[in-house]
Amino acid sequence: MNTGSTGGRRRLPLSLRRRAVPWERQRPTWREARPAVIAGALKRAQARPSGNWYVVGASRDVRGDRPLARTVAGQEVVVWRDAGGRVVAGPGICPHLGAPLRDSPVRCGTLVCHWHGLALDGGPSAGWEPFPAHDDGVLVWVRLDAVGGEPPLDAPVVPRRPAGARALSAVYTGVGTCEPEDVVANRLDPWHGAWFHPYSFVDLTVVGSPDGSEADGDAFTVDVSFKVAGRLVVPVRAVFTAPEPRTVVMHITEGEGTGSVVETHAVPLGLDDRGRPRTAVVEAVVAASDRPGFALARGAAPLLRPLVRAAAGRLWRDDLAYAERRWALRATGRFPG
């Protein structure tokens, strides 16, 4: 991919599309988006070990006054920080009379049940047993061996990221009626980007896709331009991989923001009141740049994070519709892929 400047980087991050075409006249991608390629990549992702680790949420959402709560595959989970700031986790049901610990406060690192005052410091107590937890600096994970059923790993499979000191991170969470595999399949279909999200992506070409061999790294390589305004775009090369069954990672490998990542984690929540599966999408954007002005952007992170989450939310309104449609067709035996 030619970035058009000495040293492989443009002087300015923006480019001007000189041959912009209307949405309906762009090159069709349906012949290239072969169902067997997507299904094969999904099957291989599902065969990779997760060690029974599940993303619960953003690290910065684990506060000092209340727990972060999530239901994972029907299991109520609470996560908080102990007196030393270490993340601890365990069942969200009080072992005394079943109070919802998600509604209980944290005081000096101890979760105090608001029904009868049972105090939990993160260690085993009164029949309450903690779950292994991991804070990777961006996301918090919990290991649920009874749910996952795999041989456990000491730590989750965390993708390679830019160093935290030079990065800006934001985490978006959305929920849809589907299963994790439907979310992962969406991310393993890069061909839909410019057709389904024309407000964000243009000039998309998949220049490499998996053939099932170990040599190709099981990666989708995409040249695409992120739309800024009008004909102003930011061209990049991105590589999509699935390091574990419920995660797809996009690495920017060329162009503006090289080294930045977007991690999409699919977390099964359980069934709704109609018996349909619910899945949370937890997407972490970890952006980096060696441009001098990026230091200012990091300083403005509290202002920028809501904008990044809003942009992710707009994309996932569409992509969750894709995932939900895929599940609905699979559930009724009508999915053509």
From TrEMBL:
<dbReference type="InterPro" id="IPR017941">
    <property type="entry name" value="Rieske_2Fe-2S"/>
</dbReference>
<dbReference type="InterPro" id="IPR050584">
    <property type="entry name" value="Cholesterol_7-desaturase"/>
</dbReference>
<dbReference type="Pfam" id="PF00355">
    <property type="entry name" value="Rieske"/>
</dbReference>
<keyword id="KW-0411">Iron-sulfur</keyword>
<feature type="domain" description="Rieske">
    <location>
        <begin position="53"/>
        <end position="142"/>
    </location>
</feature>
<dbReference type="InterPro" id="IPR036922">
    <property type="entry name" value="Rieske_2Fe-2S_sf"/>
</dbReference>
<dbReference type="Pfam" id="PF19299">
    <property type="entry name" value="DUF5914"/>
</dbReference>
<keyword id="KW-0479">Metal-binding</keyword>
<protein>
    <submittedName>
        <fullName>DUF5914 domain-containing protein</fullName>
    </submittedName>
</protein>
<keyword id="KW-0560">Oxidoreductase</keyword>
<keyword id="KW-0001">2Fe-2S</keyword>
<keyword id="KW-0408">Iron</keyword>
<dbReference type="InterPro" id="IPR045612">
    <property type="entry name" value="DUF5914"/>
</dbReference>
